[in-house]
Write a structure and sequence with these properties.
Elements (H helix, E strand, L loop, with lengths): L4 E8 L10 H16 L8 E5 L3 H4 L5 H8 L7 E4 L5 H14 L5 E9 L5 H8 L15 H16 L3 H15 L13 H5 L3 E3 L2 E2 L8 E10 H4 L5 E10 L14 H14 L8 E3 L5 H10 L8 H6 L16 H5 L6 H13 L12 E8 L4 E8 L6
Parallel strand pairs: 2-3, 2-4, 9-10
Antiparallel strand pairs: 1-7, 1-8, 4-7, 5-6, 8-11, 10-11
Helix pairs in contact: 1-3, 4-14, 7-11
The chain binds coenzyme A.
The site of coenzyme A (COA) has 16 residues, from helix 5.
Length: 388
């Protein structure tokens, strides 16, 4: 029997081009902010999991777990790095939750960090392609914008998804992000600006791409005995699923099959249905992925994600608010940190403390995707403890 687990603290650095902060500064700052939020002293932390996708390539530093534990003053606790491409952060969260659920630890920190802006865009693009199939995708010149462009074209061909619908994803995310002081690009854009921005990988334009970002985020999870004395947000389910690493091996280019499986299992474990999600974070690394995600989460029928977004259902004030602080597009995407930032934003919403609050939010979901969908990590959080 697994024990109940709650999130009891969250901290996030500003996301952006942070010349004056090193990788260790970022990891330490986020961790200290999470500790402050939880009201706990560092010596209460029993283990650290930290996600980082490619610190070795971005800044030449490996052994991120030791670096972060050391600079946070957490030694000699066990510190472990997780890597699952852009889902590295949520993978750290899942390990932290499992460590508490198993009874091994009572209070665990889960962090994510990345410092990407020290390299040129071409070098970042090459490093990021480490998350795809090196031999069969990177080797023929594909890039991440290229991979997602293929999915966008397939979705357009199969379901009639339009360029306007794809661009409306980033218009809404920028509208949300404009309220977020920690966002990399906290400004609104018009549909016209999005649709006329620089073409990156046809049909995806600059305004369809998440940026290159420095940043870190941390959460603290705790057992029920500890959490119930605080103001907890309960973890109702954590799920992880895998798919083929290469896009050409997938059964379909128009669905996130791993995310679908993770969502189905999470709804079952949490004893909750998709229509009960008051707030959602999805992985809009490229705007098409938000469309694929709302379909995978069963927020709308397959093939209708474009219309769902364009109709404003995902906007704050709409039927199913998504990425209420700007998502990856406006908020920024320090790849290893994103999954933890997403959990943190759901936590803030459920505590009524978001910069773009959805009134009365009591349950939320975060979906973090690695690569072009080969890893899907999903968590459902709730104000009420009603886990099966
Ligand atoms: N959205 C909005 N504006 C952006 C942006 C983005 N995604 N990326 C860069 N900009 C802006 C910069 O702020 C800068 O503005 P300024 O001229 O007013 O200062 C301008 O565009 C040029 O910036 P630069 O850094 O030279 O852009 P770039 O052309 O080198 O990089 C991309 C643009 C889209 C190629 C890059 O952001 C990218 O590769 N994104 C995808 C990252 C990725 O794949 N992540 C993993 C996902 S799985």
């Amino acid at each position: 029997m697994m024990k109940n687990v709650a999130v009891i603290g969250f901290g996030q650095t500003k996301f952006g081009e942070l010349w004056d902060k090193s990788l260790r500064d970022l990891a330490s700052e986020a961790g200290m902010l999470a500790l402050k939020d939880s009201g706990l002293e560092p010596e209460k932390i029993e283990a650290l999991y930290i996600g980082s996708m490619a610190a070795g390539r971005f800044v030449g530093q490996e052994h991120i777990s030791a670096l972060a534990a050391d600079h946070l003053g957490l030694n000699p606790i066990p510190a472990t790095r997780t890597e699952a491409a852009c889902a590295s952060g949520a993978t750290a969260f899942r390990q932290a939750v499992l460590a508490v659920a198993s009874g091994k630890h009572d209070i665990v920190m889960a962090s994510g960090v990345e410092k990407m802006t020290d390299l040129k865009t071409s070098e970042v693009t090459t490093a990021l392609m480490g998350a795809a199939d090196q031999e069969w995708e990177a080797g023929i010149g594909l890039t991440f914008p290229g991979l997602y462009a293929l999915m966008a074209r397939a979705h357009m061909a199969k379901y009639g998804t339009t360029l306007e619908q794809i661009s409306s994803v980033s218009v809404i995310n920028h509208k949300h992000g404009a309220k977020n002081k920690k966002a990399q690009y906290p400004y609104e854009i018009t549909l016209e600006q999005a649709m006329n921005s620089q073409l990156v990988a046809d049909p995806l334009r600059l305004m369809d791409c998440s940026p290159i970002t420095d940043g870190a985020a941390s959460v603290i999870v705790a057992s029920e005995e500890i959490a119930k004395k605080l103001d907890p947000v309960w973890v109702l389910s954590v799920q992880q699923a895998s798919d083929t690493i290469a896009l050409h091996d997938r059964k379909s280019l128009t669905e996130l099959a791993a995310a679908k499986i993770a969502a189905k299992k999470a709804y079952e474990e949490a004893g909750i249905t998709a229509n009960k999600m008051d707030v959602t974070e999805v992985h809009d690394c490229f705007s098409i992925n938000e469309i694929l995600s709302v379909e995978a989460l069963a927020y709308c029928p397959e093939g209708r994600g474009g219309k769902f977004v364009q109709d404003g259902k995902v906007a704050v004030g709409g039927e199913r608010p998504v990425n209420t602080t700007g998502g990856l597009k406006a908020g920024g995407h320090p790849v290893g940190a994103t999954g933890i930032r997403q959990i943190g934003d759901i936590y803030l919403q459920l505590k009524g403390k978001s910069c773009n609050q959805v009134k009365g939010a009591s349950a939320g979901l975060a979906l973090n995707v690695g690569g072009s969908g080969a890893t899907a990590n999903l968590a459902i959080l709730g104000r009420e403890l009603r886990r099966k």
